[in-house]
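Input (structure):
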């Protein structure tokens, strides 16, 4: 009852048979080798006994010394043993060996398939778990971000071409003086949240605005008036006392913030810019509604026509 549990073999019948036959084969060859060595020693002994010690030197048969017949008989017995090992009792013929090999390959393939299925199942469960945790963390982060901005109107302000292009090499592709004036008018007196590259595109910090720069760089050097944070959540926390903080770029910050923003102030430049490398996310009409549109035609100060459009989240 309390004794050790008897371990059962993990080797199937075919594998056990193959191992036993291989062991028997090794023993047969070892015995044949021993027989050969004894035969050589015995033959030498018989020759020396007759020629050196003179034992039976007078015994002959048909004019041939007796030890020659003795060696020939022993040689016949050795030849019979050799024939018996390699011919008569050769149990592992080519067909049998191939059959056993096919069995082993088939069994190993089945085990490999089982391991693959187990691995796929484990990887699927792992991926599902990771996806669940990622969604949970994102939801928690969004809920936390929503709590931070619930007393303010988070606004995205951006100028984008017809193909949603917003810039190239960290610079604007156009110069629209009325758009710059509108940007200044809307953002003055507020927090403006941006990525590091957008901040570095300014010759100097913009006046009458509190700059919040999002960067992963450690010890990022900025003027004393500029706030440096490591995430959008931290940026919103830094601007929590502002009734209308603005997201001003770049592309990655726009992507992160468009799902939590309350308003979009968009300058739609009526031209497609094929050489752009940064783009604004598509404004989903099922989420956003247009509340105002103001069109400006091109003139001597504006190379392209454009429209000021204000969106509110439905």
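Output (sequence):
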């Amino acid at each position: 009852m309390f004794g050790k549990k008897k371990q059962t073999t993990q080797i199937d019948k075919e594998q056990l048979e193959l191992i036993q036959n291989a062991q028997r084969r090794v023993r047969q060859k070892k015995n044949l080798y021993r027989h050969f060595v004894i035969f050589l020693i015995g033959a030498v002994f018989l020759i020396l006994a007759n020629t050196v010690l003179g034992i039976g030197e007078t015994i002959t048969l048909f004019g041939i010394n007796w030890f020659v017949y003795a060696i020939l008989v022993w040689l016949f017995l050795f030849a019979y043993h050799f024939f018996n090992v390699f011919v008569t009792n050769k149990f592992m013929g080519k067909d049998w060996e191939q059959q056993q090999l096919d069995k082993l390959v088939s069994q190993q393939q089945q085990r490999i398939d089982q391991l693959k299925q187990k691995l796929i199942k484990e990887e699927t469960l792992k991926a599902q778990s990771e996806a669940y945790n990622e969604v949970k963390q994102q939801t928690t982060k969004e809920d936390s971000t929503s709590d931070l901005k619930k007393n303010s109107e988070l606004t995205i302000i951006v100028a984008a071409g017809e193909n949603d292009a917003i810039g190239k090499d960290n610079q604007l592709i156009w110069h629209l003086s009325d758009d710059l004036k509108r940007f200044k008018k809307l953002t003055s007196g507020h927090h403006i949240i941006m990525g590091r590259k957008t901040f570095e595109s300014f010759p100097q910090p913009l006046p009458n605005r509190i700059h919040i720069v999002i960067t992963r760089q450690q010890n990022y050097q900025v003027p004393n008036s500029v706030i440096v944070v490591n995430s959008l959540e931290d940026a919103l926390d830094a601007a929590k006392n502002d009734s209308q903080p603005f997201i001003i770029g770049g592309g990655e910050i726009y992507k992160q913030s468009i799902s939590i923003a309350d308003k979009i102030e968009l300058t739609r430049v009526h031209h497609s810019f094929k050489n752009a490398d940064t783009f604004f996310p598509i404004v989903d009409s099922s989420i956003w509604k247009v509340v105002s549109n103001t069109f400006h035609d091109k003139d001597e100060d504006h190379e392209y026509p454009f429209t000021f459009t204000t969106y509110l989240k439905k």
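Notes: DSSP finds seven helices and twelve strands in the chain. The mean pLDDT is 84.
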